[in-house]
Design goal:
Layout: H1 3-6, H2 14-17, E1 30-32, H3 34-40, H4 43-46, E2 55-57, E3 65-68, E4 73-75, E5 93-95, E6 100-101, H5 102-112, H6 117-126, H7 132-135, H8 143-159
Antiparallel strand pairs: 1-2, 2-3, 3-4, 5-6
Helix pairs in contact: 5-8, 6-8
Length: 161
């Protein structure tokens, strides 16, 4: 497994350890590496990045802030990709590395009665192919999100049959 899938969060810095709270919604943030922001910020937003700052990810669905530090914030409009936690659209990636969207998972469950998404992604993780730190806006492994979406869609689809 790659480091990006070993731990859901990097070790908190002393600067953010006290309270990682989003300045807009007050929700609890999770520290992310600068490499995540460098990979996913749109060019104009990247020009505002303070590389020596420590950034956190805000997972609150109804908050437009994606990343924040003591000095700045970046919102959904500043990213190159939609953010799973903030956009419930069917074509938004759940797994940014291997292309699993809510629609793809739902289509598979509808066609076969089950989803192979978690197994598929876990196999790629074991093979060292994931790049969560540069592909996933949360800066960490998607497997927990993927499992939750599969459970939810499995329940919803099978209850309508």
């Amino acid at each position: 497994m790659l480091d990006c899938c070993r731990s859901a969060q990097p070790e908190p810095s002393s600067k953010l350890r006290r309270a990682i709270l989003c300045p807009r919604c007050g929700g609890r943030g999770r520290e992310v590496g600068t490499i995540t922001l460098k990979s996913l910020l749109a060019p104009r937003a990247l020009e505002r990045l303070q590389p020596k700052s420590r950034y956190a990810f805000c997972p609150t669905p109804d908050c437009s802030v994606v990343y924040f530090s003591d000095e700045s914030i970046f919102t959904t409009a500043d990213l190159k990709v939609p953010v799973f936690q903030k956009d419930s659209g069917p074509d938004v990636p759940v797994c940014y590395c291997f292309g699993w969207t809510r629609r793809r998972i739902a289509d598979e469950i509808t066609a076969t009665g089950k989803s192979t998404a978690v197994f598929h992604v876990a196999e790629h993780i074991k093979a060292g192919r994931c790049g969560c730190d540069v592909n996933n806006p949360q800066g960490s492994c998607c497997l927990g999100n993927l499992q939750a979406v599969v459970r939810e869609l499995q329940r919803d689809i099978t209850s309508t049959r």
